[in-house]
């Protein structure tokens, strides 16, 4: 049965990590893979997580299955974190939230749910977007379409083009939007742009599907979720996939959530049953550990404040690295303006160089980034930022 299967090419980003690991240049820099790294180049376990794990371990009394939707304590904490305490839609019972397996698993369950609701739905994805969006959502069999999002000449959102493309949508359409820290561009919607997009959703009848994988990495927990909170208040239906991989550093624990904002509380109940049925047919029951840690942290004021300060630290480090890189490139006397990197949010930005310049950075300087010139800002550190800035200035000045 399997003998006729063709082998697939390696994932380009993972291939980059392997190539970087094999590189013996002591100055090598990995700006490829999308995980947070500290100054030492390590993706740490947060202190709040370590303490919560110790507490939870000591108190865990059973390994019997969790409730299929996750524990009530976890879900209540998540609703407060994602929608903000006392949100009108949550208070009205219009929000059905269940635990998911990371952001990816949550996106996939949401896509299967959308397909059940409307097998002719079309999902619009930003161009560019995180490549796995097309795989995760397209695997459900739904049609995909793409809307322009990033203007590579202006290094900013192509908002007018985006709105013009989405003006062609209708009630059967679902528009995937990144809540914050757009991957790969770092270009986020402003408050006014979220409002305009909401007005367009009302006018055209499309359903927004918001992917939040970096809450707290952009401007802070509340601002990063502003689009979700605003749309959930103004629109009849919103789909949200949320991940705790980055903001809690729980990557391998696979914890996230899916929330459906429905028109009424009774519709939300029906949708919840359907979501659980979708999940049952994929993985049956969610894993416990990551969600237990999130719940333990969010429900303990001391651990929560420790987590909040660690989250601030991660966000500040990213911001500081963005500023340092822009300054260091300017200090080389490079004529090209890279100040857009400072204005963008989260772990990623496009440097805005050609694939052959990306290649030159790799071969001549051992600086690794994907061909699109997307970099993970966290791969920088105070010890390599000048080296990277010199190298970028040198390849663009030729
Ligand atoms: N959405 C976006 C935009 C992402 O960048 C990622 C992770 N790279 C995810 C979702 C999913 O993350 P995970 O499954 O690891 O929680």
Automatic annotation (TrEMBL):
GO annotation terms (biological process): L-phenylalanine biosynthetic process from chorismate via phenylpyruvate
Domain of life: Bacteria
Cofactor(s) this protein requires: pyridoxal 5'-phosphate
EC number: 2.6.1.-
Coiled coil (residue ranges): none
Organism phylogeny: Bacteria, Pseudomonadati, Pseudomonadota, Gammaproteobacteria, Alteromonadales
Quaternary organization: Homodimer.
Every Aminotransferase class I/classII large domain range: 27-392
NCBIfam families for the chain: PRK09257.1
Pfam families found in the cross-reference section: Aminotran_1_2
Full protein name: Aminotransferase
Family stated for the protein in its record: Belongs to the class-I pyridoxal-phosphate-dependent aminotransferase family.
Example of a GO cellular component annotation carried by this entry: cytosol
Keywords: Aminotransferase, Pyridoxal phosphate, Transferase
SUPFAM superfamilies in the record: PLP-dependent transferases
Keyword match Nucleotidyltransferase: no
Gene3D superfamilies per record: Aspartate Aminotransferase, domain 1, Type I PLP-dependent aspartate aminotransferase-like (Major domain)
A single GO molecular function term of this UniProt record: L-tyrosine-2-oxoglutarate transaminase activity
């Amino acid at each position: 049965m399997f003998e006729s299967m063709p082998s697939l090419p390696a994932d380009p980003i993972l291939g980059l990590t392997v190539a970087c690991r094999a590189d013996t240049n002591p100055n090598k820099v990995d700006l490829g893979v999308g995980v947070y790294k500290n100054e030492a180049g390590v993706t740490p376990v947060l202190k709040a997580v370590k303490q919560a794990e110790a507490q939870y371990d000591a108190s865990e009394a059973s390994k019997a299955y969790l409730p299929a939707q996750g524990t009530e304590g976890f879900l209540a904490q998540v609703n407060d974190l994602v929608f903000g305490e006392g949100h009108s839609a949550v208070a009205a019972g219009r929000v059905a939230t269940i635990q998911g397996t990371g952001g990816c698993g949550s996106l996939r369950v949401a896509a299967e749910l959308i397909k059940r609701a409307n097998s002719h739905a079309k999902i619009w994805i930003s161009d560019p977007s995180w490549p796995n969006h097309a795989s995760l959502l397209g695997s459900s069999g739904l049609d995909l379409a793409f809307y322009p999002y990033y203007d590579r000449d202006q290094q900013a959102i192509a908002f007018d083009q985006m709105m013009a493309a989405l003006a062609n949508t209708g009630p059967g359409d679902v528009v995937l939007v990144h809540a914050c820290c757009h991957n790969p561009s770092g270009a986020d919607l402003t408050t006014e742009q979220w409002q305009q997009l909401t007005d367009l959703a009302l006018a055209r009848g499309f359903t927004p599907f918001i992917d939040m994988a970096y809450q707290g990495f952009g401007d802070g927990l509340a601002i990063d979720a502003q689009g979700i909170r605003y749309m959930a208040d103004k629109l009849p239906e919103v789909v949200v996939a949320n991940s705790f991989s980055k903001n809690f550093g729980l990557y391998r624990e696979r914890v996230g959530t899916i929330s459906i904002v429905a028109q009424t509380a009774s519709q939300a109940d029906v949708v919840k049953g359907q979501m659980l049925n979708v999940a049952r047919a994929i993985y049956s029951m969610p894993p416990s550990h990551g969600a237990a840690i999130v719940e333990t942290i969010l429900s303990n004021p001391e651990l929560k404040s420790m987590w909040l300060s660690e989250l601030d630290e991660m966000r500040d480090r990213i911001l500081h690295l963005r500023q340092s890189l822009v300054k260091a490139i300017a200090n080389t006397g490079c004529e090209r303006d890279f100040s857009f990197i400072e204005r963008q949010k989260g772990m990623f930005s496009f440097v805005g160089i050609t694939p052959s310049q990306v290649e030159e950075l790799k071969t001549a300087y051992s600086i690794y980034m994907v061909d699109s010139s997307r970099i993970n800002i966290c791969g920088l550190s105070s010890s390599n930022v000048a080296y990277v800035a010199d190298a970028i200035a040198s390849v663009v000045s030729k």
